[in-house]
Design brief:
about 150 residues, alpha/beta, CBS-domain, three-stranded mixed beta sheet, 9 helices
């Protein structure tokens, strides 16, 4: 089995996409992350949903979880509103890691190794600079366990 056998269409965003829209897309489609495209339509990075969440959760609550407990429930329930006018570009990690991208001929083990190495629940599949789609961790494991 190869990456081409696992790839499926996947929603994409750009660095200019509003972070709130990205969060909505993650929630409504139950996605583990998003593929961020550059101006030429090539994958720039894979943005795990947790990176969007980091932008919404106040830094002081991330640094000291006990502080999150002192926020009243109504305010705590509305923390995602903190995304406001921020963009996906602001969610991108400061230190880019290895890009979780593979070609359609990669084996399942190569895809799994890339996911493990990059700690990404999502791999973009690209052929000749064109995004074909993505492979999610769920798809990879479901197919690997079915064999």
């Amino acid at each position: 089995m190869h990456a081409r056998d696992l790839v499926c269409g996947f929603p994409t965003v750009t660095a200019g996409t509003p972070a709130a829209e990205a969060a909505r897309l993650l929630a409504e489609q139950d996605l583990p992350g998003l593929i961020v495209l550059d101006g030429d339509g090539r994958p720039l990075c894979v943005l795990p949903g947790t990176q969007v969440l980091r932008l919404a959760v106040p830094r002081y609550c991330q640094d000291d979880p006990a502080l999150a407990r002192v926020i009243d429930e109504d305010q705590a329930d509305a923390f995602v509103r903190a995304l406001g006018g921020r963009t996906v570009g602001e969610c991108l990690p400061e230190q880019p890691r290895e890009l979780p991208i593979t070609d359609p001929d990669a084996t399942v083990l190569e895809v799994a190794a890339l996911m493990a190495r990059t700690r990404s629940p999502l791999i973009a599949v690209v052929e000749e600079g064109v995004l074909l789609g993505a492979i999610t961790l769920q798809t990879l494991l479901a197919r690997a366990l079915a064999v």
